[in-house]
Amino acid sequence: MISIRSMTRRSEPYVFAAIVALSLLIQARSGQFFTGNNLVDLARALIVPALFSIGCMLVIVSGGIDVSFTAIASLAMYVTDKTLLASGYSGSVLLAYAMSGALGLLMGALNGGLIGFLKLPTLVVTLGTGSLFTGVMYGVFAASASDVPPAIAAHGKQTLFTAVNLESGLTSNMPSQVLILVGALVLVFLLIRYTMLGRGIYAIGGDEAAAERAGFSVAWIKLFLYSFVGLLAGITGVARISMISYADPSTMLGMELTVIAAVVLGGTRVTGGLGTLTGTIFGVTLMTILANSLILIGIPTYWSRVFTGAVIIVGTGVSARQIGSARRRVRTLQKEA
Amino acid sequence: MKRSFVSVLAVALVFVLAVPLFGQSYDPMKFKSSKPQAAWKIALVPKDATNAWFVRMESGVKRYAKDTGINVFQKGPPKTDAAMQAQVIEDLIAQGVDAICVVPVDPSALEPVLGKALSKGIVVIDHEGASQQNCLYDIEAFSNEGLGQALMQVLAKSMGEKGTYTTMVGNVTNASHNEWADAGVAYQKAKYPNMTLLAAEPRVEIMDNLDTAYQRAKELFKKYPDLKGIFGTSSLSTPGTARAIEELGLKGKAFVTSVGLPNENKPYLKSGTVQAVMLWDSAEAGYAMLATAVAVLKGEKIANGINLKGKGWESMTFAPESTKVLLGKSWISITKDNVDSFGF
């Protein structure tokens, strides 16, 4: 196991190099990259995609794919938002997180049940449930953009600190939601490093039959996994609307593709079994910097999509090649042995 | 193979048969009603029955009923869906209404059903559907040029008629947003010589997302320290940009305006970061649509200068080279003083 791993050429160093190169380019073009307030702005922009990417990485590592997490986040936050608005709730925002998280968990459990116990293909299930959740939001709840309750609005104004750019005098606030991201990273790190459950997720993605024979209860692990991803998505939904004080049901829909691209860019193997938190955060950081610096670089709007598309193709292509060549080498070595 | 040929043939046939439906033009004068006014039934079909914008429109419909005593009512699909809207219109045709006023979700998807209505002698009036073939008239609250100029006046006033600005659209492919922005820029060049358009980044897109508007505004103000104004179009540009302005500490130094909804902009209007956003009032639009339908049923000639009675709809003009599309001047500016009076 360890010998195979050490032979695997990892993609983190490449992604990290790309981040550094891009940062230097932005710095050279705008003189604004390495300023306190710009870094705070990027950290803020990173929160939501990074939270999504953690769950997304776990699913891909398990050999699955989830395209429903943005729909889960949207429906969970929307129902929470509307319920709290209607009830005139004015207490702590923790209730909003708990409620949205619980709704997300239930929706994730539906995914997990269908995938784990009925053994349906993950893409088909999550495409279906994603469409279902979006449909319920627009159909049953007749969702349209809405205000947020006072608890969420106040939470959106909480800042950890304010970064001042001494030269321009511009200020940027670090939102408190960044703590959720830190918490989720620590939790998932502990999960995959120290628990049998976490190891099980990797084992399933490596070889499901082997994992089953080794004594992992595959169905239950999948139920846990998708429920956990749903929980994270529900929490992310509230984080998102609190940061802009505006509950727009469509604000997160469509992000799933960028998030999946970021996770793959970060070196997670699409066929499962391989992926790291560090790589994922690198991948999502690169995508976030890219998405939020095109004006700083000075790329006109009309060219920004071309530029973003090219980076995704090159980035994921390089990652995929690294992993592909590593696997070929493993195979040759296995044959020789 | 054989079956696929048949299906291709069938599809082709549908298109051939549909052509006359799309191409036919109707003489509005022939739609004069022979029934007494008290027997008229006029329906207004919004995009979506539950949306606050169209709930407000219904208040205009009710006011029209009260003012005139004519049987008018609003009936829309439960959500914004072209197929469901077509079904609502089918039902209204079956009920034998005399006129249908519609705010189409997708004009082309409604052509067949509206063609059917016209062929049965039902008056069809559109709003925000300038491309609709099967309607007698389409009434628009304003010309894209007129709104662009009005937005530029607001921005210029906020900026003290000097400094650098740029434009922000929902999507670079959004036709009306780009027309507003083009008209605004042309107006600035003619009227405000001390203002300049940011040459390096003259048009920014926000993917119709408030968070993106916020991020783009932050980038713009960081990269271009001289930038003083953002000419927004999409209703999400002002709340997103205003939030960025407040966080960056640029309140009073940078300005933004766009089309905007009262509730979304209320905090920024009240705090003074935003001076005004522009809007047209859906209640007045509903009122004007019904007035158009009634004018046709009465056999009145619709000509330049016709008064459709809604506020800003008093003196309509035909769009250039059109005998169908009527333009009004129905925009209102929403400020801290009137922002509470809309209910949405």
What does this structure look like?
- The complex is a heterodimer of chains A (337) and B (344).
- Chain A is mainly α and 337 residues long.
- Chain A is 73% helix and 3% strand.
- Chain A has a single domain, classed as Orthogonal Bundle (ABC transporter involved in vitamin B12 uptake, BtuC).
- In chain A, a hairpin with a 6-residue loop joins strand 1 (159-164) and strand 2.
- Chain A is globular.
- With 344 residues, chain B is an alpha/beta fold.
- Chain B folds into two domains: 26-142 and 282-329, Rossmann fold (3-Layer(aba) Sandwich), CATH 3.40.50; 144-279, Rossmann fold (3-Layer(aba) Sandwich).
- Chain B has ten helices and 14 strands.
- In chain B, the strands form three sheets. Chain B has a seven-stranded mixed β-sheet, sandwiched between helices. In chain B, strands 6, 7, 8, 9 and 10 form a five-stranded parallel β-sheet that branches. A two-stranded antiparallel sheet of chain B has the order 11-14.
- In chain B, helix 2 packs across helix 10, helix 5 (144-158) crosses helix 6 and helix 7 packs across helix 8 (237-248).
- Chain B is elongated, with a radius of gyration of 22 Å.
- The chains are: A mainly alpha (337), B alpha/beta (344).
- The A-B interface holds A 30, 32, 35, 37-38, 41, 45, 138-139, 142, 144-145, 147, 165, 168-173, 240, 243-246, 248, 251, 291-296, 298, 300-302 and B 50-52, 78-79, 172, 200-201, 203-205, 209-211, 214-216, 218-223, 225, 239-240, 243, 247-250, 263-264, 267.
Concise synopsis of the structure shown:
The complex is a heterodimer of chains A (337) and B (344). Chain A is mainly alpha-helical and 337 residues long.
SSE layout and pairing:
The complex is a heterodimer of chains A (337) and B (344).
Chain A: H1 2-7, H2 12-30, H3 36-61, H4 69-87, H5 94-116, H6 122-139, H7 150-157, E1 159-164, E2 171-175, H8 178-194, H9 196-206, H10 208-213, H11 218-244, H12 255-265, H13 277-291, H14 294-297, H15 301-336
Helix pairs in contact in A: 2-13, 3-8, 3-9, 3-11, 3-12, 3-13, 4-5, 4-6, 4-11, 5-6, 5-11, 7-11, 8-9, 9-11, 12-13, 12-15
Chain B: H1 2-23, E1 41-45, H2 52-68, E2 71-74, H3 82-95, E3 99-102, H4 107-119, E4 123-127, E5 137-140, H5 144-158, E6 163-169, H6 175-191, E7 195-197, E8 203-205, H7 210-223, E9 227-232, H8 237-248, E10 255-257, H9 262-271, E11 277-279, H10 282-297, E12 317-318, E13 325-327, E14 332-334
Parallel strand pairs in B: 1-2, 1-3, 3-4, 4-5, 5-13, 6-7, 6-8, 6-9, 9-10
Antiparallel strand pairs in B: 11-14, 12-13
Helix pairs in contact in B: 2-10, 3-4, 5-6, 7-8
